[in-house]
Amino acid sequence: MSYVIALFIHLLCAAFWVGGMATLHFAVRPSAVATLEPPLRLRMMAATLRRFFMAVDASVTLLFVTGVVMILATGGFRGVHWRVQAMMGIAIVMAAIYAYIRASVFKAMRRAVEESAWPKAAALLNTVRQLVMVNLALGVLVFGVAIIGRAG
C-alpha cells in the first residue's frame, strides 16, 4: 500500500512540475508579452514564478522522497530497472537546473525587478525561460521513459 501512495504522490508532483512549466511557457508568458508593458510584465512574471517555485520546491522534494520510497519498496537500488535509473539520472539533472534557476538566475531577476532595471530583468527572465524549456523537454523525456520503458 505504501508503494501505491508513494506512486500517486510522485505522479502528482511530476505532473504539477512539468505541467506548470508547460503552462507558464506556452500560455502565461506569451499572454503577458501580448498584453503587458515590460515593467508590468516583469513584475507579474516575478510574482508568478515566485509562487510557482515555492510549490516546485515541495514537488521536487517529494519526487525524490517518493522515488526512493518506491525503490526501497521494490527491493532497493541494486535491482532497479534501467528506466528507473534513467528517470533518476534525468531527475538529478532537472533538479540541478532548477536549483540554479531558483538560487541564482531568479534571485537576480527579482532583484532587477525591485530595482526597476528592466533590460537586466528581461534578460534574466529570458534565461529562466530557456532553462525552463530544457527542463520541460527533460520532464517530457522522463514521462516517455516511464511509459515506453514499462511497455518494453
> What is the 3D form?
elongated
Mean pLDDT: 96
Percent helix range: over 70%
The major beta sheet can be summarized as:
none
**How large is the share of residues in beta strands?**
under 5%
Order of helices and strands: HHHH
Q: Work out the helix count.
A: 4
What would you call the structural class? mainly alpha
Low-confidence segments, given as residue ranges, are none
Radius of gyration, in angstroms, nearest whole number: 17 Å
Number of strands: 0
N-C termini distance: 25 Å
Could you characterize the architecture of this molecule?
- With 152 residues, the protein is mainly alpha-helical.
- The chain has four helices and no strands.
- The chain has helices at 2-35, 38-73, 82-114, 118-151.
- Helix 1 runs antiparallel to helix 4 and helix 3 packs antiparallel against helix 4.
- The radius of gyration is 17 Å and the shape is elongated.
- The mean pLDDT is 96.
Which helices and strands appear, and what pairs or packs with what?
Elements (H helix, E strand, L loop, with lengths): L1 H34 L2 H36 L8 H33 L3 H34 L1
Name the descriptors:
152 residues, 4 helices
Briefly characterize the structure.
The chain is an all-alpha fold and 152 residues long.
